[in-house]
Amino acid sequence: MTTPSSRALLRIGIPVLKVAVALGLVLWIALRVDFAEGWAAIQTLSVTTICVSVFLLLLQALLSAWRWCLLSEMIGQRLKISGAMELFMQSLFYNQALPSPIPGDAARIFGALKYGLTIQEATLGVVMDRILTLFGLAVVALIGLIIMRTFYGHDLPIPYLTELTALGVAGTIASALVFSWRRHLFVRLLPEKLHALNEALGAFLTHRRMLGIFLLTLAIHGLGVVSLEILVLGLGLPLDWGQAAAAFPPVLLIAMVPISVGGWGLREGGMIISLAVFGIGTTDAATLSVVFGLLQLVVGLAGGVFVLSRPHTGKIKAL
Predict the structure, then answer these.
(1) How far apart are CA 109 and CA 123, in angstroms?
(2) What is the band of 309 on the pLDDT scale with cuts at 50, 70, 90?
(3) Is the pLDDT of residue 97 over 80?
(4) pTM of the predicted model, to two decimals?
(5) Which of 45, 56, 274, 49 is nearest to 158 (CA)?
């Protein structure tokens, strides 16, 4: 059992460690790139390219908010799309500005209360959204790794990444099938606090819109890949759409590993490794990743408009 002092130490230590990891990775990569070459490449980007890429990221946020609405309806009460979009943009702001996703999730949970959801319904909706996001990205990444191996004859130089991703996806699917078949066993095994999550998962897996929401999740992640390829074309890099479909999803999955801040450092390292398979140099790959990260930051900081325009509850402030 953790003491109050140890919990406080973890609350401080984990974000500090994430910042340190992000800074360490960024500095390590910075020593290996040509800044003059990277800046020259950035200057070739047109305003149209940047606007299209940002538009796709905003569309990604809109579809993510819509999916959250659909998930909330399965669990209890549906959110209004306008309110869901506002809360989702607020969460993006917190996720970009802070080294932890908890305040962003809290903003969505407590913000959803004013739309009639209970604290349990709001929490389950956000948890389900997180689970689906991670699983969908793992599926898209696996598809990319399979394309890379099957059509291009390459593997990312990360040991067993394809096999581990496939194992994770297959294990999740198998668990879902067993859960649907013998859900009462999970009720007995899980602590009472998780029984509501058990019911929410059951409602999702048996819902008639389950497949549609999963396909929507794949489309959401696909927009990130398209946004990256738009930047590739703007930078004049020799990477076609098929190569983009193979190279980018694993990078986006790597950036989700919760040991950094906003994926910084992890995304750049993953991009360098992934694009090297297709003959793209370190500077070009790092430049592409940084530009994409900055555009994500712009979209996230745009959510600050919603944060500043609305009062916050003490609970959200405390987080």
Answers:
(1) 6
(2) low
(3) no
(4) 0.88
(5) 274
Query: Is the alpha carbon torsion for 274, 278, 283, 289 positive or negative?
Result: negative
Most confident of 16-20, 44-48, 186-190, 196-200: 44-48
- In which residue are the tokens 């991009």 written? 271
Which string of DSSP letters, residue by residue, matches the chain? Answer: ---HHHHHHHHHHHHHHHHHHHHHHHHHHHTTS-HHHHHHHHHT--HHHHHHHHHHHHHHHHHHHHHHHHHHHHHS-PPPHHHHHHHHHHHHHHHHHSS-SHHHHHHHHHHHGGGT--HHHHHHHHHHHHHHHHHHHHHHHHHHHHHHHHHH----SSTTHHHHHHHHHHHHHHHHHHHHHSHHHHHHHS-GGGHHHHHHHHHHHTSTTHHHHHHHHHHHHHHHHHHHHHHHHHHT-S--HHHHHHHHHHHHHHTTSTTSSTTTTHHHHHHHHHHHTTT--HHHHHHHHHHHHHHHHHHHHHTHHHHHHS---HHHHH-
Amino acid identity of 125? G
Neighbouring C-beta atoms of residue 228, cutoff 10 Å: 24
Residue recorded with tokens 């998962």: 201
- Per domain, the residue ranges of the chain are 4-318
CB 196 within 8 A of CB 57: no
According to DSSP, residue 98 is labeled: S
Tens of pLDDT, residue by residue over 229-256, are 999 999 999 999 999 999 999 999 999 8
153: left (phi over 0), alpha (psi -120 to 50) or beta: left
Spatial CA neighbour of 248 closest among 147, 141, 173: 141
Q: Is 114 exposed, middle or buried (0-12, 13-18, 19+ CB in 10 A)?
A: exposed
State which amino acid sits at residue 82: S
158 conformational bin, left if phi > 0, alpha if psi -120 to 50, beta if neither:
beta
